[in-house]
């Protein structure tokens, strides 16, 4: 079963490389995402057995991330049905890469071997790069190049970290996660420390944590909305899963304090950087990219703080993905309608496209963690964790940064929504499919904010227990 | 056999240093191919003369991919660039070489306090791979052409590969092949993007935006 | 003591011009010419020493003194180098420092003498010589340090006479680095292609030769003898490292030494014919590469020793 859900997207990805019509490719992608989602949904009822000599295993953590990814792909694929009505470019490479990406991301969530995890994360980097340069303008090519180089080097460092981990696990003589975890006492602490630093820097590049974030505004700002959703919600969170796997090992070997403090440092740095840079931003997508840096910082902070923070971080993984769907798909639809996402070109969206305008405001509130949305709860949990561990200064900085980011985002989004309207390039008609997808994600975000289903709570608790945090 | 391993390690570092001292892109790629060739021979020396089929497969795989296909792809990607085109490094070749030598010293200094279990303290694998890694970073940072950045990345990758050989047995072959394949695909995609960049930036300045084609590409 | 010194000097003076002749011959033969006799350097020196030195009216005692000091210093250095089976008459711990400083003295007087002429071309050559020797000196020192690490001694005689078969087995690769770097130093210090061209007569491209333009007669003979001895000294350092074979029979040892020296001269000749002289700004890079090689060799030797 597990092999099947990785193979189906891969084979379909190969098949769309054949000369078929544009809409066929997109419909095939919708079907693949649908099948993928159905099978993932069935995993919630009965967990599949390990496959492929134990390399592919679905644990609670994997299930959580896999569901998020599956949902992202489903919503993006449906959104594409609407988007490609107005898009002239050929969709061959784009859809093929999307399906390869689905395949590799699934492998990331399933992999139970640190080496395989690396291979899969690297593969996600490679297959997402062509997505950024979809429009193949100078700017998007530059963004692709920046992304490709920074992430490749980062991921190379993560490979080095994986090898260091293999040295640390010299006596265990395996990088299988259960073997490493059960032999945690035999790991060499010094090598593990070096390995953790390399892994953190490496996967942190992918995550877009503060000093390694420079590719993010470029890549998100120049790519289509769909790509940004998959990268901000899927790709970066896959890298976060890798960090979670590392933290599993760290908490088991008593390096939790060491790892936690580095995570907190990078997390708070990301928040501050996002807060500083979002204020002067003139481009909607780029400012949402800074919001993505902020959310990654929050995730990492939650993981580093431990205790209730981990539960919050895992919950935030879901909320972040939903919020990113709302934010980037709306931004993408605005950018398509006006042919630009700069504040100088777009004003008064609400007069011409009332639904899109409302969705933009929802995206603002959902993305910055305002009350009825679930992001509010998860961020609150993480701040709570900071307060409970008596890090008042940290909690204060988090709140302050979140406030500044809200101001920055509100300034640009409200400027887009209100004011005298500018002339769009497309006809002044809403696209029902696109809006429906965004509205559904927004609705889910609100529902999760008010009521959390019992199975979801159970899975998140199981996953938090797997990390085995000690506050 | 140790002598051969040492010789390969030293040659690999030396090739990285000489890439720093090279001013022609074609020459850099050729040196990279040579370095990869030496690297691909290393699995044959690892088990004190007992060459297993796995060693041969790994050696051949590395040789074909790193010393053959990757340089070929790079040559393909730069086929529009003049054969004699020279790089314009941020810091001069002379200072690059001195910095490179210092980085090598740094790598050895760091390795003093690290010891790989099951390896002799005098083993050259760790310091040399760290040195190659650092030199790769330096090439990437100080050489601003797109191709040379790819080369820097590839040299970093070679350094990591050199390191991986020293803990050869704790990685399953499958994962190793996956790593090789990933690197191959990485270069392939980089070459395609490079090609797009060349196409896009060779059409002359964009009349609307008046963006000058940057020196970078 | 006095006799050994005298024998040593005699041997040095006897052998030195021969190897220069070998290089010239090899170059001629590869170029398809018959070339001058192997002993042409001896004839040249004999001819020059019969002539009177001519001094321009502007030069001072510095210019007149320079050739003598240069030859004297080089002869002093030669006393610290074992030649074939003849042990070095002067040897003590730390004599490598004396060697390096004597070479610096040679260079100083050469530069001072050429600046004394007030000829602009000579000044140019002097500045180039000063710059390049900055680089080679450091490299030479690094190499000698690495050799010292291997021999556990900082005396030149013990370094050269060290047990190199063992070293080649133990740290073969780093020995290779040292040898390569020493070879570049040899080329640079002796003004050979690709660093400098001893045959050129275009002042703009010359480094070493341009500094000798104003010298004539006996002075020029002194200068030329000094460079020949310098080549002998560097080769005598390099040859025992490359050919670490030792037998009990002194005559075989002498034959190996002479064979090695001639081989090295032939090699230099081959390098000279097969390479073009480097552009002046690339010379710096070559010397820096040799520095990097030496530095790396030193690190690896230290790591292993």
Q: How much beta of chain A, percentage-wise?
A: under 5%
Derived from helix and strand composition plus strand pairing, the structural class of chain B reads mainly alpha
Radius of gyration of chain A: 21 Å
How would you classify the quaternary structure? heterotrimer
pLDDT < 50 runs, ≥5 residues of chain B: 205-217
Order of helices and strands of chain B: HHHHHHH
Q: Any idea what the radius of gyration of chain B is? A: 18 Å
How is the biggest beta sheet of chain B arranged?
none
Structural class of chain A: mainly alpha
Write the layout of secondary structure elements.
The complex is a heterotrimer of chains A (about 475), B (about 220) and C (about 300).
Chain A: H1 2-15, H2 22-45, H3 60-83, H4 92-110, H5 114-132, H6 138-168, H7 177-182, H8 189-207, H9 215-222, H10 225-253, H11 256-278, H12 284-305, H13 308-338, H14 349-352, H15 354-368, H16 374-388, H17 392-417, H18 432-450, H19 454-467
Helix pairs in contact in A: 1-2, 1-4, 2-3, 2-4, 3-4, 3-10, 3-13, 3-18, 3-19, 4-5, 5-6, 5-10, 6-8, 6-9, 8-10, 9-12, 10-11, 10-12, 10-13, 11-12, 11-17, 12-13, 12-16, 12-17, 13-15, 13-16, 13-18, 13-19, 15-17, 15-18, 16-17, 16-18
Chain B: H1 2-20, H2 25-45, H3 53-77, H4 93-112, H5 125-142, H6 146-166, H7 173-202
Helix pairs in contact in B: 1-2, 1-4, 1-5, 2-3, 2-6, 3-7, 4-5, 5-6, 6-7
Chain C: H1 2-30, H2 40-49, H3 61-78, H4 95-116, H5 120-151, H6 156-160, H7 164-189, H8 217-242, H9 250-274, H10 280-304
Describe the overall structure.
The complex is a heterotrimer of chains A (471), B (217) and C (305). Chain A is built from 19 helices and no strands. Chain A has helices at 2-15, 22-45, 60-83, 92-110, 114-132, 138-168, 177-182, 189-207, 215-222, 225-253, 256-278, 284-305, 308-338, 349-352, 354-368, 374-388, 392-417, 432-450, 454-467. In chain A, helix 3 (60-83) crosses helix 19 (454-467) and helix 10 (225-253) packs parallel to helix 12. Chain A is globular, with a radius of gyration of 21 Å. Chain B has 217 residues and is mostly helical. Chain B has helices spanning 2-20, 25-45, 53-77, 93-112, 125-142, 146-166, 173-202. The longest helix of chain B has 30 residues, at 173-202. The N and C termini of chain B lie far apart (44 Å). In chain B, helix 1 (2-20) runs antiparallel to helix 2 and helix 5 runs antiparallel to helix 6. Chain B is globular and about 55 Å long. Chain C is mainly α and 305 residues long. Chain C has one domain (2-304). Helix content of chain C is 71%, strand content 0%. Chain C has ten helices and no strands. In chain C, helix 1 (2-30) crosses helix 8 (217-242) and helix 3 (61-78) packs antiparallel against helix 4. The mean pLDDT of chain C is 87.
């Amino acid at each position: 079963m597990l092999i099947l859900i990785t193979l189906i997207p891969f084979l379909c990805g190969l098949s769309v490389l054949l000369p078929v019509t544009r809409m066929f490719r997109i419909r095939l992608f919708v079907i693949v995402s649908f099948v993928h989602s159905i099978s993932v949904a069935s995993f919630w009822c009965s967990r599949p057995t390990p496959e492929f000599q134990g390399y592919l295993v679905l644990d609670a953590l994997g299930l959580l991330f896999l569901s998020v990814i599956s949902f992202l792909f489903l919503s993006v694929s449906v959104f594409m049905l609407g988007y490609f009505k107005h898009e002239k470019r050929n969709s061959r490479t784009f859809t093929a890469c999307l399906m390869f990406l689905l395949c590799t991301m699934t492998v990331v969530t399933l992999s139970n071997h640190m080496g395989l995890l690396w291979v899969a994360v690297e593969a996600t980097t490679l297959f997402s790069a062509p997505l950024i340069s979809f429009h193949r303008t100078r700017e998007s090519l530059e963004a692709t190049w920046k992304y490709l180089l920074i992430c490749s080097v980062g991921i190379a460092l993560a490979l080095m970290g994986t090898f260091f981990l293999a040295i640390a696990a010299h006596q265990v003589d395996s990088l299988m996660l259960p073997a490493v975890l059960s032999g945690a006492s035999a790991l060499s602490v010094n090598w593990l420390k070096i390995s953790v630093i390399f892994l953190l820097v490496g996967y942190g590049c992918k995550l877009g944590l503060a000093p390694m974030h420079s590719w993010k505004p470029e890549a998100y700002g120049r790519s289509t909305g769909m790509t940004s959703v998959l990268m901000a919600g899927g790709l970066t969170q896959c890298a976060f899963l890798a960090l979670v796997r590392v933290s599993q090992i760290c908490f088991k070997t008593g390096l939790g304090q060491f790892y936690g403090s580095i995570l907190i440092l990078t997390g708070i740095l990301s928040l501050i950087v996002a807060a500083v840079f979002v204020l002067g931003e003139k481009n909607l997508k780029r400012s949402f990219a800074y919001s993505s840096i902020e959310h990654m910082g929050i995730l990492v902070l939650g993981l580093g703080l431990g205790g209730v923070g981990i539960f919050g971080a895992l919950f935030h993984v879901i909320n972040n993905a939903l919020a990113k769907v709302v934010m980037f798909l709306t931004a993408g639809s605005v950018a398509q309608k006006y042919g630009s996402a700069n504040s100088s070109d777009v004003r008064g969206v609400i007069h011409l496209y009332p639904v899109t305008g409302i969705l933009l405001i929802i995206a603002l509130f959902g993305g910055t963690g305002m009350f009825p949305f679930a992001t509010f709860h998860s961020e609150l949990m993480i701040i709570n964790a900071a307060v409970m561990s008596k890090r008042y200064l940290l909690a204060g900085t988090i709140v302050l940064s979140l406030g500044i980011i809200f101001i920055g985002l509100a300034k640009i989004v409200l400027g887009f929504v209100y004011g005298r309207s500018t002339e769009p390039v497309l006809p002044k008609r809403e696209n029902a499919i696109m809006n429906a997808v965004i509205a559904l994600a927004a609705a889910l975000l609100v529902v999760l904010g008010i009521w959390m289903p019992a199975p979801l709570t159970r899975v998140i608790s199981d996953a938090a227990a797997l990390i085995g945090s000690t506050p | 056999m140790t002598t051969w391993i040492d010789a390969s390690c030293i040659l690999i570092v030396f090739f990285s240093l000489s890439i720093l001292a090279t001013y022609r892109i074609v020459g850099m790629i050729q040196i990279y191919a040579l370095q990869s060739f030496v690297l691909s021979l290393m699995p044959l020396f690892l088990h004190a003369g007992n060459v297993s089929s796995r060693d041969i497969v790994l050696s051949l795989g590395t040789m074909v991919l790193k010393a053959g296909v990757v340089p070929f792809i790079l040559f393909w990607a730069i086929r529009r660039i003049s054969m004699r085109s020279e790089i314009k490094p941020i810091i001069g070749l002379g200072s690059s070489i001195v910095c490179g030598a210092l980085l090598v010293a740094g790598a050895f200094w760091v390795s003093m306090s690290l010891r790989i279990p099951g390896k002799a303290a005098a083993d050259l694998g760790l310091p040399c791979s760290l040195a190659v890694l650092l030199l790769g970073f330096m090439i990437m940072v100080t050489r601003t052409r797109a191709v040379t950045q790819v080369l820097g990345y590839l040299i970093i990758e070679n350094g990591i590969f050199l390191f991986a050989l020293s803990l050869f047995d704790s990685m399953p072959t499958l994962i190793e092949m996956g790593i090789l394949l990933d690197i191959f695909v990485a270069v392939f995609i980089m070459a395609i993007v490079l090609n797009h960049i060349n196409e896009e930036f060779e059409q002359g300045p964009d009349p609307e935006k008046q963006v000058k084609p940057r020196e970078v590409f | 003591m006095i006799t050994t010194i005298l024998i040593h000097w005699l041997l040095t003076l006897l052998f030195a011009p021969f190897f220069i002749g070998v290089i010239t011959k090899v170059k001629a033969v590869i170029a398809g010419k018959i070339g001058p006799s192997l002993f042409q350097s001896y004839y040249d020196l004999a001819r020059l020493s019969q002539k009177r030195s001519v001094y321009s009216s502007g030069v001072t005692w510095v210019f007149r003194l320079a050739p003598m000091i240069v030859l004297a210093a080089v002869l002093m250095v030669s006393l610290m180098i074992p030649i074939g089976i003849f042990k070095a008459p002067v040897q003590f711990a730390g004599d490598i420092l004396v060697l390096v400083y004597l070479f610096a003295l040679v260079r100083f007087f050469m530069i001072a003498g050429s600046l004394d002429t007030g000829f602009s071309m000579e000044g140019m050559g002097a500045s180039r010589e000063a710059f390049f020797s900055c680089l080679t000196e450091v490299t030479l020192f690094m190499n000698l340090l690495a050799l010292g690490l291997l021999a556990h001694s900082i005396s030149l005689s013990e370094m050269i006479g060290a047990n190199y078969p063992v070293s080649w087995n133990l740290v073969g690769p780093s020995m290779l680095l040292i040898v390569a770097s020493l070879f570049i130093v040899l080329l640079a210090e002796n003004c050979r292609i690709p660093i400098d061209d001893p045959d050129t007569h275009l002042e703009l491209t010359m480094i070493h030769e341009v500094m000798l333009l104003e010298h004539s007669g006996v002075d020029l003979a002194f200068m030329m003898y000094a460079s020949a001895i310098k080549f002998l000294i560097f080769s005598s350092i390099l040859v025992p490292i490359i050919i670490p074979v030792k037998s009990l029979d002194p005559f075989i040892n002498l034959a190996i030494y002479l064979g090695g020296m001639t081989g090295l001269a032939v090699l230099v000749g081959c390098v000279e014919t097969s390479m073009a002289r480097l552009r002046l700004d690339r010379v710096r890079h070559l010397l820096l590469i040799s520095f990097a090689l030496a530095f790396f060799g030193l690190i690896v030797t230290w790591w292993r020793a």
